[in-house]
Amino acid sequence: MNSVADRALLSFRNAGAADVNAIVALVESAYRGDVSRQGWTTEADFLDGQRTDPAGVAQVTAKPGSRVLLGEQDGELLACCHLEKLGNACYFGMFSVRPLLQGGGVGKQMLAEAERIARAEWKCTKMEMTVISIRNELVAWYERRGYHRTGVFKPFPYGDERFGIPKRDDLRFELLEKAL
Questions:
Q1: Among 85, 121, 124, 138, which is least packed by CB within 10 angstroms?
Q2: What radius of gyration do the chain's Cα atoms show?
Q3: How large is the greatest C-alpha to C-alpha distance in the chain, in angstroms?
Q4: What is the DSSP code (8-state) at residue 52?
């Protein structure tokens, strides 16, 4: 393979205010619009509109007990995720990898570092996330990494365009968990 990710491991750092626009661009590229179709995590077939915005990213970046973790190589942003300590659990979300690098190991490195932080730094005993329940291929990817479906569902925020414009009426989130 001739991808950036194959040459070296990612370096990690916490995002700051100066990173907000780059994070929004990465998240949007991984999930929305035609560019997202270059990877396998696209939601473009069932959601239009935005996935996130600068205000939302700035909020989670600055919130106590929360951080946006960046995965970089040679100063170039390749991946990100949001982590938030919720008691003994760590919430994992906004996970994004550049579309052309998806499937090349960047996501595995990012997830492993997120789990390390949750376990070693925050002393969490489990990782939690919500995934749109129809995303079977994505759920299977997480299951191969030790996550399991809980059967706990949360409604999709229909009518709140900050989270996208649904193209179908059966969207909902399912809680996935992994013991750390």
A1: 121
A2: 15
A3: 43
A4: -
Q: Which amino acid is at 178?
A: K
pLDDT tens-place string over residues 91-122: 999 999 999 999 999 999 999 999 999 999 99
8-state DSSP, 102: T
Find out whether 96 and 79 touch, Cβ atoms under 8 Å.
yes
CA–CA dist 86, 78 (Å, integer): 26
Q: Which helix (H) or strand (E) holds 92?
A: strand 89-97
CB 118 within 8 A of CB 19: no
Q: Which two tokens stand for residue 176?
A: 């996935």
Contacts of 61 (CB under 8 A, 6+ apart): 15, 16, 17, 19, 20, 23, 67, 68
pTM summary value: 0.92
3-state secondary structure of 142: helix
Please say whether the beta carbons of 128 and 89 come within 8 A: yes
Structure tokens at 141: 């990817």
How many whole angstroms separate alpha carbon 135 and alpha carbon 28? Answer: 17
Q: Copy the structure tokens of residue 48.
A: 């239009």
The torsion angles phi and psi of 45, rounded to 5 degrees, stand at -75, -20
Q: Nearest-CA neighbor of 44 among 27, 57, 56, 32?
A: 32
Q: Name the residue with tokens 């996550």.
A: 147
